[in-house]
Amino acid sequence: MYLKKPFLVLLSIGMIHVGVSLASFAQASALKINPQHLDITTFFSGYRISLSGSIPSNRDVVIEIKGPEEKSVFNMKGRVGPFWMNRGKLELEKAPFLYILLLPEGKKWYATLSSLGVGIEQLEQQLIIRPENVSLHVVFPRFVKLKRSEHLYGELEGAIRYSRSTEGMKHFEAKVFLPSSTLPGEYRILNRVLHNGKVEETNLHSFTVKEVGFIKRVHELAYDRGLLYGILCVLIALFVGAVIGLVFKGGEAH
Amino acid sequence: MSWFIYLPIAHHSVLLPVIVGLGFLVGLLSGLFGVGGGFLMTPLLIMIGIPPTVAAASDSNQIVAASASGTYAHYRLGNVDFKMGLILLIGGVIGGTGGVQIIKLLRQLGNADFLIQVTYVIMLGGVGSYMFLESLQGLRSTKAKVAPPVSKKESAYARLMRCLPFKTNFVKSGIVISPIVPLVLGGFVGVLAAIMGVGGGFIMVPVMVYLLRMPMHVVVGTSLFQILFTCVNVTIMQSYSNHTVDFVLALLLLVGSAIGAQVGTKLGRRLKGDQLKILLASLVLIVMVKMLIGLLVEPHFLLSYYGGD
To answer: Is residue A103 located within the same domain as residue A229?
Structure first.
């Protein structure tokens, strides 16, 4: 009987502690994405999005932005005698169009990425290459080099900054620029909370990029009514060509 | 106001003055030499991040405006031989259709790209060098005192021209030849253009100058007339089949190129035929050297998006 009381007290303390931890993780999972979605308008030139949240002071966070997965077709360059030229066509499936990994400040993370199961190198496992006789090990580094040059793939060390460590929690914030070539579609944002070099919790958020207004209408016309779109393109080109011709003719008279 | 504008099909934003400027530059060349400029514009667009298939298709759309504007400007100057242009166009369409089949066959045999690029370099080098030397000679001879005419032996080509039936007078070009000649030559250029994936303007111009013996100014106007129709066809086909024409990109390019074509035409009037030829020859040789370097030097990226070079 006497033993029960301290046990209940301990249990209560334990439950409160677990409650606090769960609340902390709940806060970690509540990643704030600003803006919550991205609209592509006529004057869109890329956008810097902000990702922020809070985690316990003794944890770290890494954020992965990826998607949409697509099939891409490439020319493979090779040497024929003294000449460099296209040596064939290949297809890569399940490659995310965009992959950006945001890493926190203060540590060297590159060495530990594979143990965390994140990073560009990990993508190689999910890719499917056709024709199958082409080596993915040869193609993958070339693919990554191409994507990095377009700022569509990247591992950004120090991109996540910590601040305000209060009541056992610290605030984190990262700003990442999505280039104008970011395709419309659904992107996945995964924030992983790390403790002692291991992933403790993973939270998934979705982020939508979509075309709106004039851009959306032109896109729809081009894809849904290709013939009409082509004829309109030609008519407008002829009209502009003729108008400019007339303008110059008018200028000539002076 | 932002200077950037988003391209809905290319999925890429571009700096507005850069694209209009590029259009102007290529339009200038178009008005000057009667070339579509695709061989120059497409690589430049790829360089600024436009997907290759979109770059090539949208470029065709802008050439419609530039060549319409240029054809109109040359028509006012009396530099368009419509009869000749139409026959060359018919030949070009027939040849282009045949060329597409040839390229399919070459790809099945393997190493088609190798054959295409090497043929390209040899042809550009040959045409460019011949044109350059010939016009240089022309420029020198006009400066030197007029020598007494020397009677030349008739060439086999000239004899063949004389033998062919259905002689027709091409008034604007000032020549009387059988329409079979431009039909066959148009077909030949169509085959080459289809194999090389270019509009064929810079192959057609030397053909008209050296094989049809047309005056340079009429060549430029007539070439633009022919290119106009070729590019109308390509724009509609690409829009319908591949959805690769970016109207916003084409519109920006064509505003620049239509103005450039007018400026080029006016500039061309101040130049002599040989001066025009030597400038075009230099341009052809520069493209040839660029291609040769591309063949010999290891590319920075060993993977490129399909549809590019």
So the answer is: no
What mean pLDDT do residues B134-147 have? 71
CA–CA gap between residue B275 and residue B253 (Å, rounded): 27
Q: Do A73 and B72 touch (CB under 8 A)?
A: no
Question: For residues B194 and B96, is the Cβ–Cβ distance under 8 A?
Answer: yes
Chain B residue with CA closest to A73: the answer is: B306
Task: Tell whether B113 is within 8 A of chain A (Cβ).
Answer: yes
Nearest chain A Cα to B294, which residue? A84
Peptide bond connecting B148 to the previous residue in cis, omega within 30 degrees of 0? no
The helix, strand and coil proportions of chain A, stated in percent and rounded to the nearest 5, come to: 35, 45, 20
Residue A41: phi and psi, rounded to 5, are -110, 180
Tell me the two tokens of residue B196: 């090389």
A200 and A220 fall within a common domain:
no
- Buried b or exposed e, range B159-168, using 16+ CB within 10 angstroms: eebeeeeeeb
Residue A136's CATH number: 2.60.40
A144-166 confidence digits (pLDDT tens): 999 999 899 999 989 999 987 78
Provide the whole-model pTM: 0.76
Contact B73/A at CB under 8 A: yes
* Residue pLDDT, tens place only, B69-120: 888 888 888 888 999 999 988 988 888 778 777 767 776 665 566 667 777 7
- Test B118 with A83 for CB contact under 8 angstroms: yes
DSSP code of residue A18? H
Q: Which has the closest alpha carbon to B92: B215, B202, B280, B227?
A: B227
- Choose the closest CB to A237 out of B8, B114, B250: B250
Measured CA to CA, the distance from residue A120 to residue A100 in angstroms comes to: 8
In chain A, what residues touch B308 (CB-CB under 8 Å)? 75
Among residues A123, A126, A120, A142, which one has the least CA distance to residue A74? A142
Mean pLDDT (chain B, rounded):
81
pLDDT, residue A212, reads 95
Q: What is the pLDDT of residue B9?
A: 93
Q: Which of B254, B259, B261 sits opposite A237 (nearest CB)?
A: B254
**Residue A225, burial from CB neighbour count under 10 angstroms (0-12, 13-18, 19+):** middle
SS3 A85: strand
On whether any CB of chain A is under 8 Å from the CB of B297, the answer is yes
Specify whether A157 is located in the same domain as A44: yes
d(C-alpha A33, C-alpha A47), whole Å: 13
Neighboring chain A residues of B239 at a CB cutoff of 8 Å: 222, 226-227, 229-230, 233
Out of B68, B238, B306, closest to residue A242 by CB = B68
Number of domains, chain A: 2
Cβ–Cβ under 8 Å, residues A189 and A206: yes
Domain that holds residue A37: 24-211
